[in-house]
Amino acid sequence: MSSVMTSSAISELTRVLLDANIIAKPVTRTLLVVGGVPSGFRAFWSRAAEREAQVHMRPRALPPSSVRERFDVLLGPTGTGAERFGGTKGADRQILADAAAAGARFLVTEDVDDYGLDDLASVGISAANPDLFLAARLTRDAYSTVIDLFVERQLNRRPRPRNSTPPSPRTIRACSQRTPTSTTSRPSRACIPSPP
Known about the structure:
Layout: E1 14-18, H1 20-23, H2 26-39, E2 41-46, H3 47-56, H4 64-71, E3 75-76, H5 92-102, E4 106-108, H6 117-123, E5 126-128, H7 130-137, H8 140-157, H9 169-177
Parallel strand pairs: 1-2, 1-4, 2-3, 4-5
Helix pairs in contact: 2-7, 2-8
């Protein structure tokens, strides 16, 4: 599924274009993509950002195109006239042109300084650091939804091997009868079964 965004598709939500350096970071990307709609914004990226992100991702990482399909992330239009952004660094000119073409209000990037202030102002876009943007925009419920997704993925990723031995009854009994001696919620090392 290769969704191309139209202005009417996300007119009710604040449009937020993700720079390549955000797309390449799975946790930050997921917080923005999954937590966005319930928080009142729609995170998306452009083809240029996706190509650049793919170059910087770890070899076994899920490609951005697969993330788009899984979470129905819209692919923004390709902007024109990138050369007009003279105060913006290199390849980021195309990213800013793409954000302008999509009607984005924010461009989330770790490299805010790469975008010229006059260039951003000329198209009415604010460049924002992901941590600051998330702190200001992500709701508590949206954050909980994303954390639940992470936990579910981790639990489903590590099924116990068929030939593994469950903990011995003696280990289980010793752990369940143990009384905490401190106020921490961490289990004692004695209650963590060692691998067979």
